[in-house]
Each structure stands twice: as structure tokens, then as C-alpha cells.
Amino acid sequence: MENVHLAVEEDDLYSGYNDYNPTFDSEELENDVGFQQAVRTSYGRRPPVTAKFPGTAIGARPLASSFGVSDGAARPMTAVRAAGYTSSLTRGMTFDPLGQSRGPAPPLEAKNENTICVCFHDVCLKALEKAKEAGRKDRALVKQKELSGKPEQINLDTRYSVLLNLANQYANNEMFQEALNTYQLILNNKMFTNAGCLKVNMGNIYLKLKNYPKALKYYRMALDQISDEHKEMRTKIMQNIGMVFVCMGQYTDAITSFEQIMSNSPNIKAGYNLTLCYYAIGDRERMKKAFQELISVPLCIDDEDKYIPSNDDPTSNLITEAIKNDKLHQMERDRCVEMVKSSQYVELANDLEINKAITFLRQKDINQAVKTLKTFEKKDTRVKSTAATNLSFIYFLEKDFDQADRFADLAMNADRYNPAALTNKGNIVFVKQEYEKAAEFFKEALRNDSMCTEALYNLGLTYKRMNHVEEGLDCFIKLHNILRNSTQVMYQVASLYELKENYPEAIEWLMKVISVTPTDPHVLAKLGQLFDIDGDKSQAFQYYSESFRYLPSNITVIEWLGAHYIETQFCEKAIQYFERATLIQPNQVKWQLMVASCYRRSGNYQKALETYKDIHHKFPENIECLRFLVRLCTDMGLKEVQEYATKLKKVEKMKEIKEQVGLQPDSGRSSSSSSTKGERLISKMRSYPVSNEPYEGSNSKELDASYVDPLGPQAERPRTGATKRIEDDEFGDDELGDDLLPE
């Protein structure tokens, strides 16, 4: 009995729970040399969290039900009373998913500084330093532009990008007040017209700071400033507003936001949150309805699409392949195919094989697609025609026109009324420039299927090549009535009106193209060209400038803008365009000569001399450059005039010798070129009067400034009949439709 102790009222029922093995003491881990060394050598991985109290399986933390903490939470676990849920609190309890009634959660355990999070923190700090450095350089550049009297050259896009990046880096480093100040600085600048969406970022920061009223305020302000055209962004902001209301416990207001999302643009997250909000207010009927709406939201993805690699990450692709080749998935697929083949639905099995080939095409596995389709060569007539049509389509894309012709004939022999096969055959004849025959095949395809848009489109192109403008217009206008928003069709109509020299109609149709694709730089440049031909220089300048803004590497646009500024006597502004052309084509001497000529005509003879010297260093045999160097040095009284005069005579004599023996001078180092279209630009420059001109331009052969149509003949390549949509034109990359089979 000496070892038996009876409990009295003064005894502490919970004594002894703070006595544990010192091995489990985590407070002195920072001073534990062995532990710190282990952390450093394991790339920051920490062991899994175990029970702090060895006497229990979970520890002294109370178990909580989904509605609240049990009333026996303060009592230690015993074998007498069951752990977990209690029935006493399931009635009359309020819905509190965020645990707000229990007060703030205890502070998180401080992370060890030797974990991998330290590396991420270091990266964020370095990024912040780079962002600050970019801000300092941008301010210095702006100050320099203002001091030099050229404030119009300040690049607002660069300033906006620098400030936005700085604000984002402040936010990544949890320097929220600095981030808010930087965002506010951007918003206060009236020059940044599209900065209203940054209020979403400010709302996100206030949400992290749990300042829900301000987060709600900025979300609503951002929603007011974003137009209805940006439907997806407005939906996301509405979803954030709903979540803020949930955090504030205002479930009725949250329901209003989520209901609006589900009525305009339903998605999984909004439907799920709406169901939970109805559960929170206890409205079962509306909760059932919300759940039905949730499960009716389309996923917009086929079962097989989940296994198509969508990125270049090799790890993700390996995981996708592992899932796709899972034994259960393979067994299910094989059993399904075998059951279909052995059933009365044999045609369905053939369709499955065709879809399999199409899936290989979408995965860009051309060899497997061809292998699958070739298995149908000995099948029945309908399947053979379908497979041969797709094979002809594939070989046509690969420019193997002989094989494409062979399979097109095979498809036509199997089914003469197959409009896709006839369209493919017409395409092959079109490539061979036998336009009369191509037109007959396209007409036959249309007789078999009047809604075959590919045949109608290609027939219009054929008429265009045959210079039958009216017939081509008739085809494309009919097609426009079927495909109202097709930019390719509208562009072809504009092109045909241009051939008729009906420039107002061509401009009107290009305006329709711009209404669908407002940022297409080639269409904008084409509009500028047509306005220039029509004599409207101001509109031409506007559209060429817009084209340059979206594609600043188009040499044709750069040339026109530079020539426009020279024509309007603003040679200083023309310099920046020709300098950009020099960066794009550094081996073309003509652009560097343009820059030097602009400096000369603007009266900056010293800068012009330096530029000519630099050109001579790169192109020592360029006669035009040497002539200008001789004249500049003569007028400025420089001693180098004799040196350049000697070099000029030597180069001219070498040119005469080459011409005598029938050799042409190097195009990169000579002032002449095979193209003559660019001569008008230099001729214009020479014809413009310049005050205080010390000398006139030479009478030697002019420089080349090639003018190439940016749209070119690619816009007239035929569309393939085996696909619902395939184009190769100025509007974008080749695009295969989802359905490669004719309906």
C-alpha cells in the first residue's frame, strides 16, 4: 500500500503532463549542433511532426467537431469516454467554418532559418534590389530626357513596367505598406490610362492584412473601372468580393455575388462557394438547387484531353504518360475496343480508330497518325474514303504533293461524293497552278455539299489567281454570310476590292477586320498603305503608327514613317526609325546612310560626320559614304579630306575594273542593289529643300530600300478540305481545327 496514493481535492488532475523526455524538447534545437548540421545537409527538409506528449497518441490538443470544440476538451483522454464528436453541440450551433468564434489562432511556430524557405526569401530580396535599381535608373533617364529638352521621348510603358515590378516585389517580400504606396503612385499618374486594374492587387494586399472593408472597397473600385469586354477578369473580381463577404460573415451578400457569377459565367469555384453559403444560412432548398447548378457546369475537357502533354516540362509529361499508360486504363480501353469490334456496332469501332488517329495528330505524332490511317486501306468504301482524305490532308501539309495526290484519288475512287476529298484534289491542282481544273473540283465539291466552306473559300482564291475579280467577290461575300466573323474572308474581300482599285470599299472591309482583331499589325499597315494611296496622309500616318506600336520590327512600316517625317521636315524624328531599322538589318548600309543624312539635313554636321566615319569603318568600299565624307571634310575644313579623297578614287577605280571584267560589286558593301522600289525614298530626300545646305547629293546610283508587301502571296494559299479550318496567312500560325473529318 505504500505505493498507492489516493487523490484529494487539492491534487492537480493534470499533473505530470509537462514531464517528458528531454529528447522531445524543441526549444533548445537552435543550440543543438548535431540537429543544425543535419538540417543543413538535408536541403532544409524537416522530420514529420510527432506527438509532443509521449503518453498519448495525439497530444493534449482537444479534438474538434465540424461544428465546434467538444465540452470535454479540457479533459485528458481516457479509456472511459469516447474521443471526438459529441452530440450535445450538434443542435443550435451556428455555422462557423472559419473558426471566428474561437478568436484568433495561436501564432505559428517560427520556421527554422536553415530551411529551404530561406533560399526563396533570398531570391525575393535579390529581386527587390533589382527592382529598386531599375527604378533608380528609370528616374535618372527621365531626368536626363527632361534636361535635354526632349520630354516627349520619355517611354511611359517603361515607367509603368518599372513601377509595377517594384510594387510586385514589395508585395512578394511582404512589405505591404511600401507596395500599397507604389501602387497608389501608379494610380495617381493620369498618364497611365489602364492602371485601374491594379486596384485588384491593392485589394489582395488588404485581404492578406485582414482589412476586409478596404479590400472590399478596392475590389469594387476595380470592378467599376473594368469594362464588360473583360468578362473573365470581372468574374474573378466578383469571386474575390464574395470571398471577402464570407470572411466577414455576411453570407447573404456573398450569395448575391456568387449568384451573379453563376448566372453570367458559371464555374466550379463559384458554384461550390454558393452551395456552402446556402448551407451556412440553413436554406436547404436553394442549397440543393445550387448543387445541381454546380454539377451541371461543363468541364470543357474530354477524357482523353487530360492525357495530352500541354507544356515542355519533362517531369509533368512523364507523370502524364504514367497515368495514361496505367494498367487499369489500358485494360479498360482494350476491353472496350474488343467488345465494340465483336458487336453489331462495327462501324463505331472504325470511328474510334479514326478518332485515335486524330488524337495522334493533335499530339503532333504524325507517324502514328499515318500508321493508324493506313490500316483502313483494305476496309469498306466509306471508311477507306475517310482515312484516305485525312492522309491526303497530312501529306499536303508536309508538302509531299505526290502522296497527297495519290490518297486524294484513292478517297475520290472510294466515294466520289466526298466533298472533302474533292477539295483536297482541288488544292493539289491549285498548287500545280492548274487553276481551271482546281475550280472544277471545288465546284463539284460545292454541288455535293453547298455548305462546304473550305471549297467555297478556295474557289474564291482560284478566281482571284485567274483575275476573275467579280466571281471571286461573289464567292467571298457568300462565305461572309455564313462565317460572319471570319477575318480571313473579310480580308480577301478587301484584297479583291483593292485589285479593282476601289480603295474606299477595301478600306471599309479592312475596318471590319480591325473590329474583330484590333491589334493585328499587318492589317493596320495595310490600312495605312491604302489611305496613303487614297491621298489621306493623316489617316495613313495614324494606322502606320498603330502598326509600329504592335510590331516595331516591320521594315516596311519603319521606312514609311521615316520617309513621312522627312517629307514633313522633321528629320530629327525620322532618326529613331532608321536607327531601329539599323538594329534589325545591321548589314544593310542604306539604313545607316539614312541616319547620317537625317543628321546632315537637320544641321548637326558633327554628328553626321561621326556617323559617316562609323559607316566607312564597317563598309570601307561604300562609294556613297566616301563621297559624303569628302564633302563634309571639305566644307568643315578638316585635314582628313585628302585621305578620304584618295580612298574614294581607289574604290571607284576598283569598281570600274570589276565592271569591265563583268563582276558586280558586293551588295552589302555597294551603294547599288537589285531592287528599285526603294529609290523613291532617297529621291524624296534629295528633292526636299534644306536651309544652309553646304552641298548637294551625288548623282550616283541610288540606294535600295526594298518595299515588300507584308501580306504577300501567303494569304492566297488554299484551305484544305479535310479540316474545318486551316489557313496559312497573315493573321497567325497554321491552325488545325478540332474536327479533322468532314461532317
Automatic annotation (TrEMBL):
Assigned GO CC terms: centriole; ciliary basal body; ciliary base; non-motile cilium
Q: Where is the composition biased (Basic and acidic residues)?
A: 716-727
- The UniProt record lists the keyword Transferase: no
- The record's region (Disordered) falls at 659-743
Decide whether keyword Protein transport is in the record: no
Q: Single GO molecular-function term? A: kinesin binding
Q: Know the name of this protein?
A: Intraflagellar transport 88
Q: Which gene encodes it?
A: ift88
